[in-house]
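Why do we care about 3D structure at all? Because function follows from shape, and shape follows, mostly, from sequence. That is the central idea of this module. The next example makes it concrete: a single protein chain, its amino acid sequence, and then its structure expressed as tokens.
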Amino acid sequence: MVNNIIRSALLLVLAAAISACGFHLRGNIPLNENIKNMFVSAPDGPFKDQLESVLTTSGARLSANDAGADVLLVVTKAVTSRSVGTLDERGKANSYNLKFKVKYSLNDRAGVNIRPSSTLVETRQYNFDPERVIESEAEEAELQESMEQDISLRIVRQLASITDYVAK
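And the structure:
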């Protein structure tokens, strides 16, 4: 009995702490029914996989080809660049800046823009220690994945704002 009370109290404190820090689950972002049947044209790779996953979670039905889709999500650019952030006293890099840039548009089957071309950019910085190259490479890979997910979510949020499009 006492264990149940203590357990309940701990759960209540944990729930209060989590809600106080602003934590909440990322929910799906519902898309307009008229743009749910889409084909994604993007460079093959992890970003395209991430984007398709977020779209599917938001209710999109991804077509295997453009002929079977009502709309075409066209990603014309998805590139990552890395530049030196800061230098140490010997002139060696001790941090890097990552930049992930995506350019996309949403078109109907006839090629008419539903959403004009937009460019989204995410940046991250990480420290580099030449003594810990493997850890730095792992951190860079995690940051890249994070940027890809954030851009994917931003694209879906922008697509979710399209409420007046009616498929022809």
